[in-house]
Design goal:
The chain is 9% helix and 32% strand. It has a 17-stranded parallel beta sheet that branches. The chain has one domain (20-441). The chain is mainly β and 445 residues long. It is built from five helices and 32 strands. This is T9SS C-terminal target domain-containing protein. Residues 1-20 form the signal peptide. Keywords: Signal.
Amino acid sequence: MKNVTQIACVFLLIIGNVFAQQEKGIIGSNNWLHNWTNFKPGIQDYDTPTQILAGNITKDTKLLKRDIYLLMGNVFVTNGATLTIEPGTVIIGDYESKASLTIAKGSKIIADGLETDPIVFTSNRSIKKEGDWGGIILLGDAPTNRFGNGSVASFYPHLTPSSYGDTNYGGANAESNSGILRYVRIEYAGKRVGRQSYFNGLLLAGVGNETVLENIMVSYSSGNAFEIWGGEVKLNQAVSYKASNNDFKFNFGTQSQLHNSLAVRSPYTSSSSGSRCMQINSYDKREEVDFTKKGTSVIAKNLTLVNSSNNLKEDMEKGLVKEALFVGENASLDMNKSVISGFNPAVILEDKIAINQENLEKIKFTDMYFNNCNGNIFVENNSNNEDLENWYGNSAFFNVYSKSSNSETFIDLKNDKRPDFRLRINRIIPAPQEYFASEDLGIDD
């Protein structure tokens, strides 16, 4: 009878783990990456452009699928105009003129693609590389924590004085609407604009919560794939693929939600600056922000952050693999039901953060799945993380620790055309947290 009871308990534990695991990482009854994404954009050929997109767009304009557009120079949508882009339209960023598209505050973009007919922004080079063109910038009048309003003028070294007003962002309208980006791909963006400065694939500055941002893929960006400054941003089913810099960077008091989204890092394309899947800051310099305003707050649910190393142990030994996530001082994060797989370590907190209950209640990790990481959560420049492990390892947080290869962890991430980064439920075997000391990965302390 005792054996039967034990078997029943084990069975119930397994069933409970299976059902709990199904909700972690990116979710969906079907693989929502199908049809609209492209994980090998370099081999995609497009026809010769038939239209040129240049200068300022000051009145409502519509781009048509039947045409292919060459984006040249710094193109601004201004004067309250709306730029509408039909599903399936291709816009090719010009390499020589460092092309970029900026939606000024008060104007809108309606790029509402379809799952079977996405809108594509890409490079015009025959051999495409990271940073071939600028990127897309949306500017709104939602709040930031800066003194006064901000500006993105530094992205345009040769901007004419009359255009400076079109680079401003920020205000008091959290519900502002900069339009729609849905089923959109942004490829090979992130042009260098200074010694250590790059365009981002998509920069959202002062963007309000009425803006629709869903099913956006940024691949091979030389700058950050998604960068958010201030505003109240809701990102759903966003994909960052092999960015050279950070996948998702939040700053300047943004109140953001990131849901059901994916970041795939490669140690072979990352920059040497310590790029991460997520970086959460409230400022770059303390003197530039108003501490009476809200600091950065990010709610992240059902994320999958994965490092695509071919040899994780070797890449860690070479210093090619960094942490997945960095949280800075005066920023808060509520991360839930997400997967972090194959990093060194999973999370680092800035060393200016005092480790106490008040601060740790602002940085939450619950229902997490930490897999194959060389350590879990640490304070910057401190190898002793006993207090953090005791806190986040508490059973009340329902965090799971495991050690499995990516091929065992995810359904089909090796599929070039239709990768599936959802968890492979029946292959996940939770193990005691102590099992994952650094020597288990062959890494010296």
